[in-house]
Design a protein that fits this description.
The complex is a heterodimer of chains A (506) and B (324). With 506 residues, chain A is α/β, with parallel strands linked by helices. Chain A has 19 helices and 22 strands. The chains are: A alpha/beta (506), B mainly alpha (324).
């Protein structure tokens, strides 16, 4: 039916998944999901974390075998045996970094396993580089193919992965959250490449949490919820709100529930903070009970600002004051003592000790207070953990569960619980809802709001503009290591923030 | 209680291996293996290996490795014997201080020098071994204080003294790893150093302390062996370091850090000890024994990796199921 809506697409689907089900012992990950892809179609696949998107992709890529159902390619039933078989059939997933070799050149990565040979049976580098350059030029990329991949940005690596896919005669290309680490400009370039793939009659399956992008680049939309197909539609017939409603199965007018809080006296003052080549003359004041949003593009220096305040990045010039006392942090410990906490950008890499239990992760920053002569008082630690699990509604079978087995939203709550245990005056939160599903996001927002109303001063760094706009009392916009603008929260719009964040307005 | 036991067995696959070995040797060698004298022998033998396995467990938990323990052991034994004429306890003190000092150097090389632990301790291993050969002129050093043999060869009632000493060490290390801030810091550093740092933990200080403890425990082992033999020889400690690593890993420690326990280390040493003893009783040639031990190590690590992967999969599935 959607074929008639998207009139320019040919009628016979290139790839068809018919009533695919996948069960793991005790879990039904996918139930009777059908999906069609036509040549030249860009289809968005959306759903909350755990909705079954990854399982679906893995079945397409040959990682899993479906329990039931059929996959047809050009109308012919196909059993996709393994990832190598998927590649031979022309189904190519583009991951960001996996499958690429950082120490090999771009050309070597494109032709890995099938390098052109000269008549002595040795690799013909000249020909390989020329061919690689041609594939790249085809995508509108002018990077030198002899460069080692390790010197390329994430965006360039992605282009290399796409060039490799195209050179492999890809017929279906799968993108999984391709823009999560790209800047706006790089995203634009990715989109123009996707349009070229479209023109080559390649079908694209595009997975993303970012609604604006989906509406910008995709033709059609498939929504999964709890492993089942919810909707298959053309994008012209839906709105962001209706898509989100389909994803979560309920209305979400209270996703952001900013309550006006009484803003108190200044708690954190930063004066002319400068880090060579990264931050220039940053001054800001953060008040009790205030949420100060920090917007900007990737690379604008937002994360570095938080790290410098938290003693994790040495600064050359500037002053940091907490409640009228100057601190000179040389390590995070100093800042924790002064009442600052940091919920870092990447909770798995920087936030949590994954193999440790929930309890030990929560108590990690307050072991000093819990211990007597270096011995941890076990009962107080257990009480703290149980209390935190209850207050933050952390879903875990036990406080002894290793934190790596919790869902993203619950992991984030464990990190926040750790800092609440320190009774912070200032909480720096960096991308607090990255990789968390929509339902859990609203609970993180509610939690931050509650903290602010209890008098905690919150500095919130985020790349999601709706989040910044809805949550912030004031908004700072950073561009190339400087604060370009300070906007009052209620008056700011996405357009004004973006103008400052991209350096168009001064 | 039952779930606790299940959890323990799941975490320590080595228990199965140990029971299997005892069953095998018990049925094939009969009374030779399962008699009081032989069990005594095993116990006495492994009591000298346990301090090293504890040392390695501490360092492995913190995400490091210490190859120098074998050399430290032999040098500590040499100092204990060589300096004995100047005073038995003076000699022991110097030996222990020496171990701690090597540990301190290892720690500083790793933290201040930013050298990976494998290379740093490979270096000190070689240097200390050279120092030992120089100091002893490659000759055995006999003891001069017969009373000192009490610590390595004596018994209190039916229990060998070194076992008591080692039991105390085990309790101490267990308490340290499980109930103190220092122990917790080590698990956090080994599990995720970045996260530990951002939670206010002083990475370098704790790592240095872990290496100092490792050196100290290695020296304790050297002192006990010297007391047991009432001599030091150039051969002791030659392959102890590698076997201590094997025991710690068989006992659940991981080369990637953040994992390991005292009980695991002890079980690892006991397993290897039972294995060696059983093969001796069966008359297996020493050269074959080396191969068998290596196969066991690789098998245990492989089983561990596979079962960990399965457990992880199961738990992920469970948490996935809970969400629905």
């Amino acid at each position: 039916m959607q074929a008639s809506n998207a009139g320019h697409l040919p009628d016979a689907p290139l790839l068809e998944m018919r009533s695919i089900s996948k069960s793991f012992p005790g879990v039904r990950a996918l139930h009777q999901v059908s999906l069609e892809l036509r040549a030249g179609e860009v289809r968005a696949l959306v759903g909350e974390n755990g909705a079954g998107k990854s399982t679906l992709i893995k079945i397409l890529a040959g990682v899993y075998q479906p329990t039931e159902g059929q996959i047809l390619l050009d109308g012919q039933p196909q059993l996709i045996r393994d990832p190598a078989h998927a590649l031979r059939l022309g189904i190519v997933p583009v991951h960001q970094e996996v499958n690429l070799e950082p120490y090999l050149s771009i050309a070597e990565n494109i032709f890995i396993g099938r390098q052109p040979r000269n008549r002595f049976g040795l690799i013909d580098f000249g020909q390989m580089n020329r061919e690689a350059a041609r594939w790249l030029a085809d995508l509108g990329v002018a990077t030198d193919p002899a460069l080692p991949l390790g010197m390329c940005s994430i965006a360039e690596r992605q282009m290399v992965a796409i060039a490799r896919a195209v050179s492999l005669d890809a017929r279906v290309v799968i993108f999984d959250e391709p823009t999560s680490s790209l800047t706006l400009r790089e995203t634009e370039r990715l989109f123009s490449v996707i349009r070229r793939l479209q023109a080559k009659k390649i079908a694209v399956l595009y997975i993303s949490h970012r609604m604006e992008e989906i509406f910008q680049i995709c033709d059609t939309l498939t929504v999964l919820r709890d492993g089942a197909l919810v909707a298959t539609q053309t994008l012209r017939t839906v709105t962001t709100d209706s898509v989100i409603r389909m994803m979560i199965g309920r209305d979400l007018q209270d996703l952001y529930q900013k309550q006006p809080t009484a803003v108190g006296p200044p708690v954190l003052e930063v004066k002319q903070l400068t880090v060579q080549g990264i931050l220039k003359d940053i001054s800001l004041t953060l008040h009790q009970g205030e949420i100060l949003g920090v917007a900007g593009l990737v690379g604008a220096g937002r994360t570095e600002l938080a790290r410098a305040i938290f003693g994790d990045l040495p600064y050359q010039k500037g002053e940091i004051w907490v409640e009228g006392r100057r601190i000179r942090p040389t390590c995070p410990d100093d800042c924790i003592a002064a009442g600052i906490g940091l919920v870092p950008e990447d909770r798995k890499e920087q936030g949590l000790v994954l193999p440790m239990p929930v309890k030990n992760n929560i108590s990690l920053a307050v072991l000093n207070k819990l211990s007597w002569l270096g011995v941890i008082r076990a009962r107080r630690e257990t009480e703290l953990a149980q209390d935190s699990v209850r207050r933050l509604a952390i879903k875990t079978p036990s406080i002894r569960q290793q934190v790596q087995y919790l869902s993203g939203g619950n992991q984030q709550r464990v990190v926040i619980a750790r800092w609440l245990a320190t009774h912070p005056k200032v909480l720096l939160v960096d991308e607090p809802t990255r990789g968390i599903d929509v339902g859990a996001k609203s609970e993180i927002y509610a939690l931050l709001n509650r903290l602010a109303s209890q008098g905690v001063a919150i500095l919130m760094i985020s790349s999601e503009l709706p989040e910044i706009l809805a949550m912030s009392d004031r908004i700072l916009v950073m561009y190339q290591g400087r604060i370009r603008a300070e906007l009052p929260g209620p008056q700011a719009t996405e357009e004004t923030i973006l103008r400052f964040a991209t350096g168009q307005a001064v | 209680m039952l779930t606790k036991m299940r959890h323990f067995v799941l975490q320590h696959n080595v228990v199965f291996l140990l029971l299997l070995l005892i069953l095998c040797f018990g049925s094939t060698t009969g009374p030779l293996f399962l008699n009081e004298q032989n069990i005594h022998n095993i116990a006495r033998q492994i009591s000298f290996d346990i301090p090293l396995a504890l040392a390695l467990t501490i360092v492995l938990v913190a995400g490091g490795i210490d190859l120098s323990v074998g050399s430290v052991l032999s040098m500590a034994a040499a100092l204990t014997m060589g300096l004995q004429p100047l005073g038995t306890w003076f000699a022991v003190g110097v030996a222990l201080l020496f171990g701690a000092a090597v540990g301190l150097i290892n720690g500083l090389l790793v933290t201040k020098g930013r050298i990976v632990p494998f290379i740093a301790t490979l270096g000190t291993m070689t240097v200390v071994r050279g120092a030992m050969l120089t100091y002893t002129r490659q000759q055995p050093i006999p003891g001069s204080d017969p009373a000192f043999t009490f610590w390595g060869a004596g018994s209190l009632g039916p229990v060998p003294v070194p076992i008591l000493v080692v039991a105390l060490l085990c309790v101490g290390v267990h308490l340290l790893l499980t109930y103190t801030q220092f122990g917790r810091n080590l698990y956090a550093i080994g599990g995720n150093a970045d996260a530990a740092f951002l939670a206010g933990i002083q990475i370098e200080r704790n790592k240095v302390m872990a290496f100092v403890l490792s050196g100290l425990l290695a020296a304790v082992s050297g002192v006990l062996i010297a007391s047991r033999l009432n001599a030091s020889t150039v051969h002791i400690g030659l392959d102890s370091g590698l076997w201590a690593i094997a025991a710690a890993i068989i006992g659940g420690a991981s080369l990637t850090g953040g994992k390991g326990s005292t009980l695991g280390a002890v079980l690892g040493v006991v397993t290897l000890g039972v294995l060696v003893n059983g093969m001796n009783l069966l008359g297996v040639h020493t050269y074959y024994q080396i191969g068998v031990r290596a196969v066991i190590l690789i098998a245990v690590v492989a089983v561990d990796a596979l079962s960990a992967a399965n457990l992880r999969k199961k738990l992920v599935m469970q948490s996935y199921g809970n969400r629905e």
